Amino acid sequence: MYVGHFAIGLALKARFPKIPTLPLLMGVGFLDILDGLFIILGWNHVTPNLLAGPYLFFDLTFIDWDHSLAAALLWSCVWGAFFLNDKRVAAFAFVACFSHFLADWPMHNADLALYPFSTLHLGMGMWGRLGTMSWIIEGLFVAVLAGYAYLSSMRRGVDLRWPMVVMALAFINLSPWLSPMKHVATLGQPSATLVHGALVTAGFLIPGALLTWLINKAERKGAAAH
Questions:
Q1: What is the pLDDT of residues 186-221, one digit of tens each?
Q2: Which residue, among 38, 30, 77, has the nearest Cα to 60 in the 3D structure?
Q3: Cβ distance 5 to 146 under 8 Å?
Q4: What is the 3-state secondary structure (H, E, C) of 146-207?
Q5: Most buried of 36, 43, 63, 146, CB within 10 angstroms?
Q6: Is 80 exceeded by the pLDDT of residue 226?
Q7: Whole-angstrom Cα distance, residue 163 to residue 16?
Q8: Confidence grade of residue 90 (pLDDT, cut at 50, 70, 90)
Q9: How far apart are CA 27 and CA 222, in angstroms?
Q10: Across the chain, what does the average pLDDT equal?
Q11: How distant is the alpha carbon of residue 100 from its chain centre?
């Protein structure tokens, strides 16, 4: 899952507007920010596979250091600890981060270990079983959460049209037809792995920061209007 993670963060922000944006919108992508870095460092391992749809075109051979259940819980605690000056914010930061693992569970192809090097793996395999349809299902999931966030925020006078545009563009860009990962998978090694890792990290770090800025700008504009 990709844009679906940001949709969860957006919905959380809309439901709990007093929680700062950064712990939520950056939190939902924290595990993949780490994943990309760990791939570059050689701690996690991915394998190019042009048949691995709908948009990743890599097999997630070993991602236990951030996407196993135990690691996700640990890193969610770490992310929450960054905001311990306010325990309520820290709790929501934890929820946002751990939501990443829960949202990945239906999509991933049994590559979510129970703990690093565990032989037991989780993942319902919608990517592998449904292919392009799993991307469409993610789109519907995004539409529901984004629609809720937009309408809920509008009732407070906060216009989220630009965050909606960013998420729509990100969703289209990482489609089965336009995904840059398809081209990356054709590169020789180690370039394919290194570029994949860099794109995974950038793909959550940059949109997460942009969405945080846009949402905060919309919140300030809405507050000024009232």
A1: 999 999 999 999 999 999 999 999 999 999 999 999
A2: 38
A3: no
A4: HHHHHHHHHCCCCCCHHHHHHHHHHHHHCCCCCCHHHHHCCCCCCHHHHHHHHHHHHHHHHH
A5: 63
A6: no
A7: 17
A8: very high
A9: 24
A10: 97
A11: 6
